[in-house]
Amino acid sequence: MALQILAAPGDPALLDLPWQTPLERWPTDQLVALPRGISRHVVRFVRLEGSVYAVKEVGEALARREYGLLRQLERLDVPCVEAVGVVLGRLDTAGRPLDPALVTRHLQFSLPYRALFSQTLRPDTADRLIDALSVLLVRLHNSGFYWGDCSLSNTLFRRDAGSFAAYLVDAETGELHNALSVGQRDYDLDLARTNIAGELLDLEAGGLLHPSMEAVAIATQVVDRYTTLWDELTHKDVFDAHERHKVDQRVRRLNDLGFDVAELSFVTDDDGRRVELYPKVVDAGHHSRRLLRLTGLDVQENQARRLLNDLDHFRAEICEDKREDEEIVAHRWLTEVFNPVVSAVPREWRGKLEAAEIFHEVLEHRWFLSEQSKRDIGLLPAARSYVNDVLSLKPDEQSVLGSRIGSPTEAAAPYEEGEETA
């Protein structure tokens, strides 16, 4: 059987990889050092033409199935890794068959949960991870996707303005339906609780869990937070016909949670005095889409919310006429506020954090310094102080996504004892 690559339009350099060699024996000069979680499959990371890919050896049926599910989830705008292709018909140099491979594009600036702490997982970090995973699970279920193996290990996390955004990284056990039953959602939640408890107990056994934290209790928080969020998304509101402001309140609450309302359905009682409201909720992105439309910046939802707050504050300062075109003001903010802050970072340090995360942290640093000084110290002085006193001490998160194994910048070596699912 000849080598076959089922792939979306992408990098033709995939053909040049050593597909005739078992993945576990790929030469180190082809590989990139990345922090990895735990996986039942062999996974390797490679750099091709400036992009980093994850390659996972898996059976043909599972590879084709996961590739298709990831492509469908991408079309539904669900946070997940991007499926690149499936490689079939692999033979070693002796003509013996090798397992097919699933290729995904590595999510830039993302980290597995084990790489998000240096010594001990502290309660506040665990809370933010659980929040992010709960939101991801709600978004998946709202899209009709049953995960079947929700866990911290099967998730990648990106920093998002002090919080985390979670991305699905393993879909091989998933199923996509028009809608999920209560039983399917409950079973997914029960699996999540069991998996997360096991992962945290593993950290506890290794002395990497803060003494104040109890693994099973933290895992149960996923269910509690999921339930709260799901109820907010799906419950119906009942109000008097003249209380139309409650419609706006409900939409704003959903927007604040990061969800958009595609349409509203109203049902009145027989005398028309009571109204029932059923919102149709779609995936997160209310703030990130607005920021992308105004500035071209494609960032995480919390980052977008923070940047839009600063943009709105800038607009209030410079615009006496509130009817000033929003796109014009956004362009001024981008050139006069955002870009100068990003440019204050030396080029060699721009891989430490995403530009939007740096801007968010500069705003936080400005507030802190202004509180200390009892006066506003200004944005650019705060940016220079942040670069020298804070950013310079941070690990380089983008370089973790790029150094070849054995190179002087091998930043991810401490995390390579496990394997991360593609």
Structure write-up:
It is a single chain. Helix 2 (123-142) packs across helix 4 (215-234), helix 8 (326-343) packs parallel to helix 10 and helix 9 (355-373) crosses helix 10 (379-389). This protein has helices at residues 60-75, 123-142, 182-205, 215-234, 245-256, 286-295, 301-318, 326-343, 355-373, 379-389, and strands spanning 4-7, 43-48, 51-57, 82-88, 101-105, 110-111, 145-146, 155-160, 163-168, 175-176, 237-240, 259-268, 274-284. 36% of the residues are buried. The strands form 4 sheets. Strands 1-4-5-3-2 form a 5-stranded antiparallel beta sheet, covered by helices on one side. It has a 3-stranded antiparallel beta sheet with strand order 6-8-9. By secondary structure, the protein is an alpha+beta fold. It is globular, with a radius of gyration of 24 Å. It has 10 helices and 13 strands.
State the gist of this model:
The chain is built from ten helices and 13 strands. The chain has helices at 60-75, 123-142, 182-205, 215-234, 245-256, 286-295, 301-318, 326-343, 355-373, 379-389, and strands at 4-7, 43-48, 51-57, 82-88, 101-105, 110-111, 145-146, 155-160, 163-168, 175-176, 237-240, 259-268, 274-284.
